[in-house]
Prior knowledge:
Organism: Rotaria sordida
Protein name: Retrotransposon gag domain-containing protein
Helix content: 55-70%
Pfam families: Retrotrans_gag
Domain Retrotransposon gag: 45-110
Amino acid sequence: ATLLSKTLEQTPKYSGKPDQNADEWLNDLIATCRMADITEAQALKLVPVFLEGHAKQWYSDNKETFETWNVFKTEFIRTYSSPTTTQLASNRLRTRLQHYDEPVIEYYTDIMKL
């Protein structure tokens, strides 16, 4: 198998269960697609492969509305991102300060993760 197929096989599936982080899953999927040179149009077609359970049913019920990758991302986050997760990230972003001996790139990377 090629590196691409192995990478895609190892990409976790998202089911919509409360113990899964929707934002993290979507960011991982985006990173995988970028690494594999998958376009946004191709990613939109591939998404159902990485969904299961309730999330796959949600996609199936709404796929006609996902005209673009950005529409899908917005609706996915709106549906599955926990308000608690969003609030925690917002709080961390507001209170995160660069430490005295912390390299700028490390601080920047940490902020971008939020």
